[in-house]
Amino acid sequence: MARILIVDDQPEIVELLGMSLTRDGHAVSSAANGREALAAMGIEPSAPEAALPEIVLLDVMMPVMDGYQLNQRLQTEPRAKGVPIIVMTARGQKMRDLFLAAPNVAAYLQKPFDPKTLRELIAGILSSNARPKSNA
Question: What's the predicted TM-score (pTM) here?
C-alpha cells in the first residue's frame, strides 16, 4: 500500500506501530531521531534516488534532532516538503499549535492513542491525498 517512515526513539512504540501497519500491507521503515530520518529519506546526505515515504509518523521529543527540528528541515527540502506528517506526542497544546501551523502536518495525535485511529488517519490521507487536521 504505502511507504511509511516511523520516526520515534522508543523501540517498543516503533515495533508496535510497525507490526500494525505491516499487517495492513504498508512498507514500514524507522528512524530513532531526525538525523536518521533525513538519511533514510536521502536528504542528508543527499541521495536523490532514495524513495521518499508517503507518510511520516513523527514523535516530537527525541535525542540528536527532535521532531520539530526535523519538520522544519523537511519544509525546506523541495523533494520532501509535500510528504504528509502525522505528529505523535505526549506534549501539550503548545506543541500541537506549533505543528498544526506547518503546511505538511496532516494530523496530530496525542499519546497514548488508539492504533485504530492512526490506521484510519493513514487510510484517509492516502485515499483523499488531503491534509486533515485531527483532534484525536
Answer: 0.89
